[in-house]
Recover the amino acids of this structure.
């Protein structure tokens, strides 16, 4: 029997984290021929994940350029992936999530009449401009994908409400849990000199991540001000903040935290040290999306520094709390988790809604059922 030619396309670090376990599963399975195309929408951060999972690209578009805009990326991805599809002739193209790579790679496949499989389908915030442009991207892909690999029942329901036929939807769990279980180690040793000296055993370490466009300006200033106040009020707290490479965020972080004791500004971490940092932290403060899935799997409460989330399952399960960007609300909610043991354990022990680490296997079996 001929092998099914499956082409995976991704370009950012978050996509790579969630697609690399799927690539490895395809490589191990004799029913498939795996074709990997990376756009390198993020270059260095992408490469570090490829190295961790030992994934080699068959096609590397190397599209990243300084000062690139969404339109720059989109046009390059559309043209580049179109050429790769014509050369590789896959039976199906798999894209992930909601990036500019995702939308335009999916369009390239559609224009070539190649079926599109959307991994991590059905996430919705309900606001086209938050997160921006991700909500727009995933909704558009959802409109024409042939197979929707939905992580949760809530995602399935979102797709059904939008008129997607039930037979096109597959409930799989999230591949990020597959990735997570591959790299977490109790004996992990950090290379970063700052992290080596953080007392994870005796301090309540808060991991902070903050970078989303909608938080630039005053919202981010208020978030940082709240963190500064939390540290001042709680002597047992230390904060680790891997600062995004964006110059505006770095300038603000240095201005607010530069002289603050127990706030450690470090460089962005590769995937492996980052998830082990999650594992060793007491709780998470973030405006990111993926960490809302990873941290609950490790029993870490997540305080979301946004006004909404496209991952409501975590909120319903009790592993995540959306607190917004108001300084006083942030301080109140985080202090509660720091001093109220019951509130902390309620979040830490809630059941993770994102799966059991077997999503990749379910995706492969679904493809076989449809193509063989």
């Amino acid at each position: 029997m001929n092998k099914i030619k499956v082409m995976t396309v991704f370009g950012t670090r978050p996509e790579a984290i969630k697609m690399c376990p799927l690539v490895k599963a395809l490589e191990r399975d004799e029913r498939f021929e795996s074709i990997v195309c990376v756009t390198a929408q993020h270059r260095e951060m992408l490469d570090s994940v490829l190295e961790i999972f030992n994934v080699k690209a068959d096609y590397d578009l190397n599209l990243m350029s300084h000062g690139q805009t969404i339109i720059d990326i989109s046009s390059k991805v559309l043209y580049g992936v179109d050429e790769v599809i014509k050369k590789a002739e896959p039976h199906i193209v798999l894209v992930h999530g909601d990036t500019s790579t995702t939308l335009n790679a999916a369009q390239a496949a559609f224009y070539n009449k190649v079926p599109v499989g959307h991994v991590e389908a059905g996430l919705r915030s309900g606001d086209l401009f938050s997160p921006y442009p991700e909500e727009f991207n995933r909704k558009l892909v959802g409109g024409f994908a042939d197979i929707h690999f939905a992580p949760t029942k809530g995602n399935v329901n979102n797709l059904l409400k939008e008129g997607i036929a039930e037979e096109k939807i597959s409930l799989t769990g999230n591949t990020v849990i597959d990735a997570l279980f591959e790299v977490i180690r109790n004996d992990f040793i950090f290379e970063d000199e700052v992290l080596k000296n953080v007392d994870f055993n005796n301090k309540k370490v808060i991991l902070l991540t903050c970078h989303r466009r909608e938080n630039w300006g005053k919202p981010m200033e208020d978030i940082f001000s709240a963190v500064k106040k939390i540290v001042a009020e709680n002597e047992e707290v230390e904060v680790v903040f891997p600062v995004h490479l964006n110059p505006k965020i770095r300038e603000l972080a240095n201005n607010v935290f530069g002289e603050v004791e127990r706030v450690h500004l470090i460089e962005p971490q590769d995937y492996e040290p980052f998830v082990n940092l999650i594992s060793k932290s007491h709780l998470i403060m973030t405006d990111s999306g993926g960490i809302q899935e990873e941290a609950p799997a490790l029993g870490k409460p997540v305080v979301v520094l946004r006004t909404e989330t496209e991952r409501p399952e975590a909120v319903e399960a009790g592993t995540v709390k959306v607190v917004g960007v108001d300084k006083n609300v942030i301080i109140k909610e985080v202090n509660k988790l720091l001093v109220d043991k019951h509130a902390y354990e309620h979040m830490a022990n809630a059941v993770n809604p994102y799966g059991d680490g077997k999503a990749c296997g379910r995706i492969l079996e679904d493809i076989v059922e449809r193509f063989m």
Remarks:
- The mean pLDDT is 95.
- The first strand starts at residue 4 and ends at 10.
